[in-house]
Amino acid sequence: MALKITVIGTGYLGATHAAAMAELGFEVLGLDVVPEKIELLQRGQVPMYEPGLEELLRKHVAGIEGSSGRLRFTTDFAEVAAFGDVHFLCVNTPQKHGEYACDMSYVDSAIASLAPHLHGPALVVGKSTVPVGSADRLAGYLAAHAPAGADAELAWNPEFLREGFAVQDTLRPDRIVVGVRGERAEKLLREVYATPVAAGTPFVVTDFPTAELVKTAANSFLATKISFINAMAEVCEAAGGDVARLAEAIGYDDRIGRKFLRAGIGFGGGCLPKDIRAFMARAGELGADQALTFLREIDSINMRQRGQMVELARQALGGGPFLGKRVAVLGATFKPDSDDVRDSPALNVAGQIHLQGAQVTVYDPKGMANARRLFPTLGYADSAAEAVRGADVVLHLTEWREFRELDPEELGREAGVRVILDGRNALDPEIWRKAGWTYRAMGRPTA
Ligand code: UDX
């Protein structure tokens, strides 16, 4: 009989995983402790913007006309325990308030709510990003608190999905990593992932700590790549070089590669910043803090980019105070194709300039509602043209396609002064200059 799957936590990760499991042919029950989220999902609506996710949900959510009916939702842990053979844990692990360490309370409370209902054999599979050592601790907790005892097993299966590509990354991941302690867990997970594995996705079996570390190591590497190129941008600023050409040139070396070498205002979001900090905190607890002190530098290079963007804007306005100046900001989300503004460099820059007295107007294709909630005192506009109206300088801070497709001539008629600062090195300087704009990008003082 086909495996029955549950997904606990229906945020970016969980909602996507649940829909993907239904797409792979399994019966799926999703759980969240927030009833409003469950009500939305039951109607086939997604609580966030993620390309393709709503379509995939509507294809499978029971009760929606024409759907497979394989995907249902609940808020009841007893129902989840009775339903599933494999339980995926997809709750978030944010940064703790005032500390580097990550907050494990959602993971712990999900396990605590599930365990007492596990009366028969079950596999609980953690997907959340956790400090190394958590799987070992949680396996012990499960064995002690589930009525099924040792038959309630744990595995760790980190998730690598990128926001904006969540559906694609979940259905066709570039690798599947499973940390297991026994053959039964591995066999069950091979069954769950049979379709992508048959299509060629590598399946890497490890122990618990390695599986947990793969995720934090991958994100640390990505963060390091971005901060490396941003450090080169700083040197290019000082030396009169061009970081975009530099990235292109070193990227031809396939040991280095072109990806994740776009200099600009740096990384943000709900993962990279908090993951490298939690990794440092955990290494400290393990007595291995020296191994990761470089991540402190990666973090500070990254945070410095935001300040440098503010300085570029100040210079563009003549070098004096921001007071009374009008600044247009294109982009609020931490990356394009997402409505996520968590630790967004764009919003951070907008906020800093606003707090220094400028009149800042922000426009973002999908992030307006979240941005408003987080930073209600900024000005918001319904379009790029409206944001730019009468502005003394325009800041391009999130590389949405919509902004690359703007007509600089048309936009120029709205702007007070034709000066654009590209905080993402994503616009074509030629096109903007042709329309009479002064174009300036980070790490390319002369480009
Ligand atoms: C990341 C990892 O990529 C993913 O594998 C993991 O599961 C979760 O964390 P995500 O947070 O969606 O995914 O964003 P990502 O695409 O990695 O971008 C992170 C940040 O880096 C964004 O703010 C982006 O704008 C920035 N970035 C990316 C750069 O500044 N330069 C680059 O060259 C690439």
TrEMBL record:
<dbReference type="Pfam" id="PF03720">
    <property type="entry name" value="UDPG_MGDP_dh_C"/>
</dbReference>
<dbReference type="Pfam" id="PF03721">
    <property type="entry name" value="UDPG_MGDP_dh_N"/>
</dbReference>
<keyword id="KW-0520">NAD</keyword>
<dbReference type="InterPro" id="IPR014027">
    <property type="entry name" value="UDP-Glc/GDP-Man_DH_C"/>
</dbReference>
<dbReference type="InterPro" id="IPR028357">
    <property type="entry name" value="UDPglc_DH_bac"/>
</dbReference>
<dbReference type="InterPro" id="IPR017476">
    <property type="entry name" value="UDP-Glc/GDP-Man"/>
</dbReference>
<dbReference type="InterPro" id="IPR014026">
    <property type="entry name" value="UDP-Glc/GDP-Man_DH_dimer"/>
</dbReference>
<keyword id="KW-0560">Oxidoreductase</keyword>
<protein>
    <recommendedName>
        <fullName>UDP-glucose 6-dehydrogenase</fullName>
        <ecNumber>1.1.1.22</ecNumber>
    </recommendedName>
</protein>
<dbReference type="Pfam" id="PF00984">
    <property type="entry name" value="UDPG_MGDP_dh"/>
</dbReference>
<dbReference type="InterPro" id="IPR036291">
    <property type="entry name" value="NAD(P)-bd_dom_sf"/>
</dbReference>
<dbReference type="InterPro" id="IPR001732">
    <property type="entry name" value="UDP-Glc/GDP-Man_DH_N"/>
</dbReference>
<dbReference type="InterPro" id="IPR008927">
    <property type="entry name" value="6-PGluconate_DH-like_C_sf"/>
</dbReference>
<dbReference type="InterPro" id="IPR036220">
    <property type="entry name" value="UDP-Glc/GDP-Man_DH_C_sf"/>
</dbReference>
<comment type="similarity">
    <text>Belongs to the UDP-glucose/GDP-mannose dehydrogenase family.</text>
</comment>
<comment type="pathway">
    <text>Nucleotide-sugar biosynthesis; UDP-alpha-D-glucuronate biosynthesis; UDP-alpha-D-glucuronate from UDP-alpha-D-glucose: step 1/1.</text>
</comment>
<feature type="domain" description="UDP-glucose/GDP-mannose dehydrogenase C-terminal">
    <location>
        <begin position="328"/>
        <end position="429"/>
    </location>
</feature>
